[in-house]
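Honest question from a wet-lab person: if I give you the sequences of every part of a complex, can you actually get the arrangement of the whole thing, not just the pieces? Trying it with mine:
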Amino acid sequence: MSDLEITVDGFIVEAAAGWSLSWLDRDAGIARLTDGTRSEMCLVEGSGSDWVVTLRGRRIPVTVRSWRERVLADAESATRQAGGPVVIRATLPGLVVGVAVEDGAEVGEGTILLTIEAMKMQNEVRAPRAGRVTSISVMAGHTVVAGASLLRIE
Amino acid sequence: MRKDEADPDPPFRRLLVANRGEIAVRVLRACHELGIETVAVYSDADVDALHTRLADRAERIGPAPAAQSYLDIDAVIAAAHRSGAEAIHPGYGFLSENAAFARAVEQAGLVFVGPPAETLASLGDKLAARRAVAAAGVPIVPGLLVPLVPGASGEVAAEVAAVGFPGLVKAAAGGGGRGMRRVDRADQLAAVLEGAGREALAAFGDGTLYFERLIAPARHVEVQLLGDRHGNLAALGERECSVQRRHQKLVEEAPSAAVTPRTRERLAEDARRVAGTVAFHNAATVEFLLDADGSHYFLEMNTRLQVEHGVTELVTGLDLVAWQIRVAAGERLPDAVLANELRGHAIEVRIYAEDPHRDFAPVAGKVTAWRMPAGPGVRVDAGVEAAAPLPIEYDPLLAKLLVHADDRPAALARLRRALDETIVGGVQTDLSFLRWLVDEPGFAAGAYDTGLVAARWAGGPDLADDQRSLAARGALEARLGADAAPTAAPRSTGTQPASAWAARARAEAVSRRPSR
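Yes, you can. This is the full assembly:
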């Protein structure tokens, strides 16, 4: 049919044989998957090679890539591999309620770096790997947006 | 609501709803049915929110942070004066159990839809409530009757050790699980007190803590009370709320599968006794823990509407919000309420913007697709209607889905069907957990306790192969469709109407659009 490769969680997956998709609301992404005897409502969102399919309430990221897109993506991830500095970003928008480390501090993997309050919950941000803290760009009382750079670990 | 269509003699002429989200919408609907004009209040984050649009009139009360808007007593009272409201319904959360607010409402010459301010003041201190309830002869969870003082470590440690581990540190001013921490060993106490105290201070402005023994396994059951200003008190059966994460409820049902008719009577009797310790009218909930032997222990009393009031409405056929408003206006509860009989089985699930596969962490973003179920025995209480950004300042509750049927198996089948019709896009929600729960053998059998989520979900099952291949099928066909017709996607905005009928409809829609 084509050279499209489908991956879920990094594993190559074959599309379910005998099933087909029909749109209930194309603009909203609401669709029905059916094999003629069973059917499930689902939500399909995305474009290009990146899709999210929601089945029974669970969002499942799916990559659908051509050979050419695969080669480009592999080249990009190879340059990211080499153990360079890691930028710690806010995964949620919220209020920084405390910064637990200072510039230049050596931290181990799992060390609590800072605490961000979002939706009335305090979330601890931990070091993903050991290293030295640099470029702290927030302090207690700052409001941050999702994706905001908080500090770097080198 | 036009006056000529309404009840000729509504309890109030105009009422202000001091809340947001689904509960504000719920109260507005009750008012409109009673013929009461409504006033909504909104922060800058809620200019276009459903509750803001649904009310007859809306008053801005401040910027997005709750402390400067929905928690600002002066701003809410000023909005009530500006709009000519006679009464204020506080909903749940925010100012609903704030004695200073209730007092300010009374002093402003308005009616607070809730208990007297002094009742809130005495119940707001959970520790004082424990003492009063124990004195009334109702069993309480074993624990300290005095506050824990961080710093005075030696004495505190000895008192806590005498109660026994594992235990729970709780906030005296608390609720909703905030400021609550589990303690398994004496050497954890100091750190726990510090963290819980900080959280309690931030959430309630009061860092006072106390200690209770952990009852496990336990089931969480609560009795709904409704009282008028003339001394009549109705106990409207129990709800079970044992499906919890972080000590916060996810699913509620009525009646409880764990409660026998005899236990039901004893729970109702003790709930009345608890209510008797304070000057009480309006709606309240008395929470108990049931241990493995079926013994019950008082946890706390909340003198406000609960999130989960809807399951009681379904099994009693009563509109609790309407009755709150009517008793606030001085009406007597009739026999139909006082001698109410329960019918069938109801289950509520809460749809939260939370990722159950990542420890139920709140998620931010925008809801892109929104399709709620309908049909027999299905009720949806939602604070959103369609695609909407999620304000990060507030609780991540999106909607409550409730079902009612003749018995528990039928209610479960109805819930499964309703969940299969439900779609929320753009953000992960707990719908995946809820859909799993319906088929979880222990839950399906009614044999579960407050440890269910931790013991049986634990992040959820791995993706099954058939789910991966189904998702792959969906994404593949979506991509092939998009690649084949790159210009087809925005067809709904195309300029060529398919027919003269469509052209006419479009012209009418445009001419009807209000100009601002």
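Two things worth pointing out. The longest helix of chain A spans residues 67-81. The longest strand of chain A covers residues 39-47.
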